[in-house]
Design brief:
It is built from 10 helices and 24 strands. It is an alpha/beta fold.
Amino acid sequence: MKKHVVIVGAGFAGLELTARLSESLADAVHVTLIDRNDSFYFGFSKLDVLLGRQEPSDVRLHYRDICKEGVEFRQETVRAIDPHERRVITDRGSYDADFLAVALGADYDPGATPGFREGGFEYYSLEGAERLRGVVSEFDAGKVLIAVLGHPFKCPPAPFEGAFLLHDLFVKRGVRDAIEIQMIFPMSAPVPVTKEVSQIFLAGLDERGIRYSPKELVVSLDPRERAAQLKSGGSVPYDLFIGIPVHRAPGVVSRSGLAVDGWIPVDQTNLATRFPGVYAMGDVATGPRTVAKAGIFAESAARVVAADIASRLRGTEPPPPFEGDGPCYIEFGDGLVGKAEINFLGGPSATGHIIAPSRELAAEKKAFGATRGRSWFDLDTDSLPAGLTTADGRLRAGPNDRQVLRTGGPWR
C-alpha cells in the first residue's frame, strides 16, 4: 500500500517536493498538495509588476495545470495541524499522513508597524506592487524612503533591487534629479554573511546616489506629518514611504505547537522536526545556523526532504546533508543582472561570491523561471507566462540553463 505524503504550502519547497516525489517514488507514495491559493508566481515577478513590465494576471502559474503521477492538488485553507498525529484539517476536510511536510512560508504583518497601513506602500505582494506602480509612475519630486521593517525577511536582495530599479525608472522618466532616495536597513550590512556580496550592494547604492542608513529600524509612521520614527529615537521625513513588512509564521503554524520562538525548528541536516515523520521547509523553518528565507534555499531543502523520505522507504543510506546553498540573481537596472553564489551550511561559516552584472545573467535568470514552469506545472513553452519566453515564443535561455535547472535559482 502506498504511503501518504501531505504537503501544506505550494511555494518553491512544496512544488519541488511534489515534483521530486512524483518522479522518484510514484510507485511508493501518494501525494496530496494543499494550498489556499489557485496559482503560484515567482518573487521576481513582483518587480516586473511594479515596473509595468507585466500585469499580475500574466505572471501566475495555475495549480490546475499540475498533472503528475500520484499527485492530487487541493485548493483549501489549512485550519489546524496536529504534528503528533500527522493530521491536517482544512476548511473542507482532514488528511492523515505517513509523512507530513509543512511549507507554508512566512506571512506579512503590516499592522506590526503602526501607521504603515495608512501611510506606506510595499511591493512584496502582487497587490502591493500593482498599487505602488500607480504611485511611482506619477511621482515627480520629493523623498522616497525605503525601509526594512523587521528581520528575518524574505528575499534579501529585494529591498536593494527595488531601490536600483526605482532609480532606473526615475532616470528614464527624467525626474531623478528632483527625487531623493534613502534606504533604512536594520542590520549592519546588506548581506552580513559575506563582505564581498554586501560590497556590491553598497557600491550600487553609492553609484546611484542612494543614501544608506544601516543599523536603524523604523518602528512607526506618522502619516499626517510624513515622518518615520526610528527605534534609536530620531525620525526621518518622507514623501513616499516603501516598506518591507514585518514577517511572521502563519497563524496556523503558531497554533499547532510546531513553532518555537516564532518559527519551526528543524534538524538542518534533513529538515526533520522534533515530531516523527514531520518536516518543515522554506521560510517557515529555522535552525541553529542562519539560512536566508528565500526560494532557492526552500527548493534545495525540498530536494533533501524528498531524498530523506526515499531513503526511509527504501531502507537506504540517508542523503547528504542540506547545505543551504544556491545562486541568487540580482537586478541592477538597465537590463543588467548579477549573481551571488551563497553557501550557508556547507562549511564552518557561510561563504559567498559575486559574479558581475551582465545581460547574459539576465537571460540565465529567465531560463530559471522557465525550467521550473516546465518541471512543476508540466507546461509546454506556449503555456508559460510571457515573461519567461522570448517575443517569438521560444524559451528564454542562458548559457548555464542546464546548471540552473540542476542547482537552483534566485532567492525567491
